[in-house]
Amino acid sequence: MSISEKLPALTGQQRDAAFLKPDGHCVVLGTAGSGKTTMALHRADFLAAAPGVGGPTLLVTFNSTLATYLRSVCEGQPNLTIEKYHKFALGYLKSRGEVNIRIFKRREESMALALEDLRASGRHQRAVIDRPVEFFEDEIHWMVGHGVTARDDYLAGAPRIGRGRPLARADREVVFEVFQSYMRLRAQRGYRYDWDNLASHVLAHLGHDNTRRRYRHIVVDEGQDFTPQMIRTLAAAIPHEGSLTFFGDYAQQIYGSRMSWRSLGLNISDGVVRFEHNHRNSPQIAALAKAMADMPHFRDEVDVVPPVAVAANGPKPTVVRLEEPDRQLFAAAAIANGRAAARRVGILVRTRAAVHALAPHLDQRHRLYRLDKDLESWPMGPGIFYGTYHSGKGLEFDDVILPQCDADELPRPSEAEVHGMDEAMARESRQLYVAVTRAKKELVILHGGKLTSLMPPESSDLFTIATVNLVNL
Length: 473
What we know:
This protein is an alpha/beta fold. It has helices at about 5, 10-20, 35-50, 65-75, 85-95, 105-120, 135-145, 150-155, 170-190, 200-205, 230-235, 285-295, 330-335, 350-360, 415-420, 420-435, and strands at about 25-30, 55-60, 80-85, 215-220, 245-250, 270-275, 275-280, 310, 320, 345-350, 370, 385-390, 395-400, 440-445, 465-470. The strands form 3 sheets. Strands 11-12-10-13-14-9-15 form a 7-stranded parallel sheet. The chain has a 6-stranded parallel sheet with strand order 3-2-4-5-1-6. A two-stranded parallel ribbon has the order 7-8. Helix 12 (about 285-295) links the parallel strand 7 (about 275-280) and strand 8. Helix 6 (about 105-120) crosses helix 9 and helix 10 (about 200-205) packs parallel to helix 11. The mean pLDDT is about 90.
């Protein structure tokens, strides 16, 4: 079967996006459920095979599970390669003679050592020095991902979109010293690379690489998950007659982005194509998603396309309060076990620890699929799919069950400790938005005490309210 035969038919505007000009840079933004991944697949298929303008095409994403799905659709299609970004980056560096590339994976430990040494030195009395190591990890991830690693550039106050309160220059001094110490420790252990700086090395090589590019066309799916440096490398990796097409939903981005497209290396001569029609979620689920995006903590710092529901009607999302709140994972599994014979049911949780704790409660008589890098092929038919919110990006299920949506669970206390409550709410609301918008027909939200404030109150008319005794499950 061809790719087009495996996918839903495109509507008029979707068809226009799939067959945009086959050269230059194109940006397509859409709400969750607007069919971005479907359009990206059709677009890649067209660019790989179009007479005269087609050629080797890369469809690249950031999510392991989504990459598995994309490969299952594109299997056997000539001229079309599906890769996660980091596999693309590693392959390119090896093609440039970088051999024996080793990725440093002890970053948190090394940053903790650097921070401990800095605290012991007594050189800084700023309160920021007492922040958890995860705070410094996150800030340095932003620095490297945006290419802001020169001291003067960072200290000058490069815009840090996504942080509720900008860091003072003196605080940046502390962060930069931790960054420098971390790089020294990494080098002492014989490593040039970690996952964050791969893109910068690729970009440096591309800047003086005059060889023929491997791909004529690149299509980016779920582009909001890519750092600016990653987007810049992809823009530089196509020939002058080639194309880069970016599909994304900035409502799903954790860190926000006010960067111009040009600063990302993209020259958008024909403007941005926007999709507001939600073909996935029922109007009732789409209404909840819109209400979440309208809440104050869902900061209007991003290029959000508000959803307009066009899918078939369904029931309102159900909010279930459990009389035994510590058994929410058992309850989620019980509900899924009762539906999985005929439907594709997703159970999405916030952490990997919750994924592990959930697994023993799932009925082995059903087809069970954990959404992670070990899922080698994309299954068809009914079953239970379970994983983190992030692992569900780009995917969809008939029903979605979200346990542990308590006020004391979301936002996670660890996120609030690292980033402060305001920023934790802004970040966690986007993660929860991803999870909510994976549901096509029914959405079940479980909590034990008070519902998370990342959602509208239970008293709103968006929900059906239920109380469940586990004896009845």
